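Quick one - first record:
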Amino acid sequence: MSGTTTSPKVGYGSTRSELHATGDRAADRRFRRRYPGITLALDTHDRFVDLLEQRVDLAIRIGDLEDSSLHRAHPGHSPLRLLASPAYLERRGTPQQVASLADHDLLGFNQLDHLNRWPLRDAHGEPLLITPTLSASSGSTLLSLALAGEGIVCLADYMTLQPRQRGELVEVLAAATERQTQRVSAVYYQQSALTRRARAFMDFLAERLPSSHLEA
């Protein structure tokens, strides 16, 4: 959300408020239909953005927050699961045990190693930290790679609900997967006034996400 616009109005005549948010691009169309007076500019990646430097008013953050200057609105937690496309599993076979992942293409992150810790246990009973065969900087890119049959990925439900419902991705090693969730939060700087357009977007996310993607 950019602070360059002067009008706080939402959906009034020709008044246009520009909203720059880092988060879920899938919500773009639904939000614009509800608030036609707001122009959304969505920036999706998995590096931490300096909200002030990048003039971002509201960001969707995954995991715990280390920046004490941020105020957090907490929509919920999203479970993690391993997924692959049916085409990939047909071509490479379905792993039946954790050790079998060594023979598969694993999709992971290239900037945030803690996101490559999957909800599985290795042979020593330790949390499994994978070395990706193919890595990317964003969860949305990894999702696209998984859908294209490039390997097995571990992502949170809020990103993968629709592909799973359509059968485009299926769960892998479900019995071995431990119950782990990622915290999903909408954040902004405590010293910044939350604009009406930002509040509208945050309320929209809080309304949409818990019922279909998140747990309290």
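second record:
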Amino acid sequence: MPHGREPRSVAGDDAIAALDVPAAEEDRLLVAALREGSAAASSELCRRYGPRLHRFAAALLVGDGPLAEDIVIQALAEGARNIRRFNPRRSTLAAWLYGIARRQVQLELRRQRRRKSIPASAQVTLESVAGFADDVDIESDCTARLEARQKVVGIAKALTDVEFEVLVLHCVDELTAGEIGRIVGRSERAIHSILHRARKKARERPMSDEERAD
């Protein structure tokens, strides 16, 4: 966009319904609509980022789908409420929202450690987590995602918290090292190093009986 020109107003139900625009432009329109109080924009925020954030939160919470859903709702509500604090020069919208969800997950994990117990809802299966995937071909798209998620959960105990988060963001959510760095507060070079270390631990960890059976 040329310097000196203000973006066109995008408020209203049709503001973010345009087709064939790049993702970055879609996010710019979405942010502008949220700042103008568009109800359609809030719905679009949930549609576009809800499934992705849910996969991320559910993986970190080891399959606790209901709790992950609660966290995602809180994170999206906080994002919409504080959208004027979002600075596109410092972060992408995705990285900003993942950062909010990550903080919510960390708070919940600290509460669980204090209680020293696992909620009953944590027995939710990984298959049910995959069922919240994007509205695309489940067989072709989610099979690969589920397999990646199962592997990540299987090695969670062998990794530090940061290694686990980075591996989930990279393998499950397919974010770039730069995006992951903005979410967890590390440099892109550090993310590459963490990924290398996490993969090494994954290769060297003992296999479970279920994995041997496969």
